[in-house]
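Students often ask what a holo structure prediction actually looks like on paper. The answer is less mysterious than it sounds. You provide the chain, you provide the ligand, and the output is a string of discrete structure tokens encoding the 3D arrangement of the protein together with iron/sulfur cluster.
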Amino acid sequence: MNALTEAMDRAMGAQKAGRLDEAVALYGQVLAAQPNNLFASHNLGVVKLAQGRLAEAERLIARAAAAYPGHPELARSVRDLGLALFRAGFWESAGPWLERALGHDPRDAEVRSAAGRARPREYLSPEAFDAVSGRILHRAPPRESGSYFYAIDVVGTCNLKCPTCPVGNFTTANRPKGLMALETFERILDKIARESVAPKPEIWLFSWGEPLLHPDLPRMISMINAMGFESHLSSNLNIKKGLDAVMAARPTSFKVSISGLSPETYSRTHARGNIELVLGNMRELRRLLDANGNQTRVWVGHHVYKSNRHEVQAMADLCSELGFPHHPLPAFFQPLEKLVAIAEGLEPPPPIMEDLLEHPVNYLARFKSVRRRDLDCELRFNQTAINFDGSVSLCCSVYDAPNMLGVRFLDEPHEAIEARKYRHSFCGKCMSLGLHYAASDLYAFDKATGRAS
Ligand code: SF4
Ligand code: SF4
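The corresponding structure tokens follow.
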């Protein structure tokens, strides 16, 4: 056995045993001597995929896939690569791999679903002129929702005061508070139906408010459902009554937004909240679903901080017991105005930032270096955010009066409202800092982080 054959054997042994760094080194030795060894290139790509180095994995697997397009081993790698890129949010890179995987197996349900989401949406024009920068921006398939969505903040405030949310950290903002009138809501829905921006739009009944505080919420959900639209809720579940009526109206989805699992951790990050009340309501949600054959998708958005990360497994166990999908995600500081002020050195980071898994000063620097500036922000081309009084906001991530569009939703057609967004200077500032809602550059991201996430 010559030295290269031996190195290749040892590399495959290390790969099989999960000793990935060793496998990388050994495949590297082989490729240094035989740069065109596509077998080694492919295997190294698979190892890089397992390490989360997606850009390198793509480059290596692409070489082998180009040479052996029909090879069964490559069909599996192509599928794995496409799904890994998709799950990590690199949908533009994932798309061609997913389509190729579908060519191998058109019945693969997971790949079909991912490929469907990663395709361009017919109702969106593929690019837009950005008046602020004077550039044409491309519109990638939106991640946040399956169709165009309207974030209608039917309750313009919240019963809690979370320190990472503007309701808790931006009390000087010039923002009126109140409940949307049912008649206004009905007229808004009628206009959405008339304008028909997209088939089956999603109606989110929240933005910076707790929707379950609205006494007419069940009626609103029923109105949305009667129009054939999707109705989505997000709640902190700190409510003592009304859950049964809300669930009887059968919203399409219901997100339980939660952080800690004990009074100490929860009340720190969901300030003024009562975790015992929340847990009781989660069990009540389960009971209501079972009692009524309700198909509402209830899921748990779990905001993870340093102070509560030891509870992630316990939360996962609870969700499993209740049959609710559990989605842990690093807590994020909002609103955009505050993030921009911090990025520009105009405001010091507040103490809660020390509790975030990654300090925003770090991720602000990363966003600035990796976010793609050739892509438009999906929060302006695929969303309209409407406040409780019917006025329109630039997007659902801003909070203060200067970032409202100065128009009521009922008073202007969709195109005119969208044009206002494209003239707004705050988007230019947000995009220059890489804070817009768009994909990162895969290769820059890999380089900046040493991993994909
Ligand atoms: S529960 Fe939600 S809306 Fe209310 S303060 Fe907390 S993060 Fe903001
Ligand atoms: S660019 Fe920034 S401010 Fe403008 S819509 Fe997107 S997230 Fe909002």
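The chain has two domains: 3-118, 149-449.
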